[in-house]
């Protein structure tokens, strides 16, 4: 059984990893993702509807995310970042133009193990 200090530390690590992950997108720094993604990572993307594309393995996830993080046309803003034990949630806004309709709100539900992201399930408001 984990002590409360071990659980507190796990939450801190998870939150730090999730914040660093999101900041890579906000600051368009794809190389900041290199140390955050674990082997065997699984990503279920928000598109295409209804289930989204699935990416299996560290390299597949990293390649996909680096493509998004490097795009200067995409503006990510966090609404909320939350963590508990090995789970993290990022509620976000993504904007790609000046019109009100050029945006979408979404959420990533993530799992962190050993200081690395190993799972991400992405959803958007449709």
Structural class: alpha+beta
Q: How large is the count of helical segments? A: 2
Number of domains: 1
For the record, the CATH architecture stands as Roll
Chain-averaged pLDDT: 96
Question: How are helices and strands ordered from N to C?
Answer: HEEHEEEE
* Overall body shape: globular
Radius of gyration: 15 Å
What's the N-to-C terminus distance? Answer: 41 Å
Strand order of the largest sheet: 2-1-6-5-4-3
In CATH's first tier, which class applies? Alpha Beta
Fraction of residues in β-strands:
35-45%
Any overview of this molecule?
By secondary structure, this protein is an alpha+beta fold. It has one domain: Nuclear Transport Factor 2, Chain: A (Roll). Helices cover about 30% and strands about 40% of the residues. A six-stranded mixed β-sheet has the order 2-1-6-5-4-3. The longest helix is centred in the N-terminal third of the chain and has 23 residues, at about 5-25. It is globular and about 50 Å long.
């Amino acid at each position: 059984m984990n002590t409360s200090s071990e659980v507190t530390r796990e939450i801190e690590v998870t939150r730090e990893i999730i914040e660093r992950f999101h900041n890579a997108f906000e600051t368009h720094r794809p190389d900041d993702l290199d140390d955050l993604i674990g082997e065997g990572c699984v990503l279920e993307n928000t598109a295409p509807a209804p289930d989204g594309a699935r990416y299996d393995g560290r390299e597949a996830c990293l390649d996909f995310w680096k493509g998004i993080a490097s795009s200067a046309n995409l503006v990510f803003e966090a609404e909320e970042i939350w963590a508990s034990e090995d789970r993290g949630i990022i509620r976000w806004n993504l904007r790609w133009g000046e019109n009100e309709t050029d945006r979408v709100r979404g959420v990533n539900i993530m799992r962190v193990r050993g200081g690395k992201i190993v799972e991400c399930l992405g959803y958007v408001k449709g």
